[in-house]
């Protein structure tokens, strides 16, 4: 699955959208989802929480492992994806669409990569 | 050190497998979704490359006596073309490995060790062979090993062989011709399903793999990696060396004392570890230590290996050895050593999942048993 050019990426394999009314949508990349394998549980920050760029804000559990979820942005969480909480397999099947994780009112971000930069990082 | 490759390495890569280092071998972890591979084995069939397993041939007039001395089982009592699950222990009773021994002829046995322990087992057997009229041969490079597992396995295999499959009992084997290749065909596995393991020449592995894949298309056979092999064996309550079994534990600690045959009559009843194992058996009888039990969680966070089992006050009462989401049960499951006082099925205990106590119920193993 190719990495969409309209998104920005982190070295920790998250993506985020350009802000709309100050709010960006955040998820993990197809590369990350493939590496984890079947995802069985996602723990996300709660609406109203403040997350910090580069810091842990949740976890993703797959058959074989549990991984920290790092926020690519600092700001208040405005929405979480209940569908992904109910059906974590969405992260595997639609990592860039239905498998989005949460939305943040962005105050700051980590250093971000464009799709080309991320492709280079993962050797795609 | 570079990883060892199986005879099917190029084929796995062409199938897009995610590979993993397993005991020094580059092995397929999964080809697609490990959950779907798991469910295919439970409902249809799966095809595995298990060529990392360590084959050792023991032969000679005293091959059976040697194995009776070196292992805890009564191996010489095994019928020709039958197989047995057994263990090799240290003098102090600690488990060096768990094994399957196949009797391939009157004076020949095929010992199959875990990949991670193959050298240890080979060294121990070689050392213990002193004084016996028997030879121990490293056959790791002589065999590739494929497994076809699942309810459709017999039907798929029947398309490729004239061997008497209905007559081949569980834990038995046959020299057979499969897809025009000479193999050892065994009705064994590590999935909790009916199935077969095929020991073949490495040069024949690819032909057999593609023949089986072709024969199994209509039945829904899929290639399966080690990830689902682990969840299949976990649901079936089967121990994995390095998790449930180790040199720190005796077979009695692991609830598998039945594999120790104090009643064997060869070598005057003596075998490596006998004295320590008799003490371990008595201790397990009088004052059971921690017991190996199953745990089922109603939550969604997974109790994983090395997590602590705790009581209502948070005191540590056990340790998880294996844990995973169970595709069949749809819940997280785990195997754990738990203090005997808390090990009764039905008891509610908790697992410390990264700082939060998640309630789990103690259940008897296995989690899954196929309908026969």
TrEMBL record, chain A:
Statement: the UniProt record of this protein carries the keyword NAD: no
Cofactor binding note: Binds 1 lipoyl cofactor covalently.
Cofactor(s), by name: (R)-lipoate
SUPFAM superfamilies tied to this protein: Single hybrid motif
Annotated ranges, domain Lipoyl-binding: 23-105
Subunit structure: The glycine cleavage system is composed of four proteins: P, T, L and H.
Domain of life of the native organism: Bacteria
Record bears the keyword Transcription regulation: no
Protein name stated in the entry: Glycine cleavage system H protein
PANTHER family: GLYCINE CLEAVAGE SYSTEM H PROTEIN, GLYCINE CLEAVAGE SYSTEM H PROTEIN-RELATED
UniProt GO cellular component terms: cytosol; glycine cleavage complex
Biological process, per Gene Ontology: glycine decarboxylation via glycine cleavage system; protein lipoylation
Reported function: The glycine cleavage system catalyzes the degradation of glycine. The H protein shuttles the methylamine group of glycine from the P protein to the T protein.
Annotated transmembrane regions: none
Pfam families linked to this entry: GCV_H
Origin species: Kitasatospora griseola (Streptomyces griseolosporeus)
Modified residues (N6-lipoyllysine): 64
Family: Belongs to the GcvH family.
Keywords (A to Z) from UniProt: Lipoyl
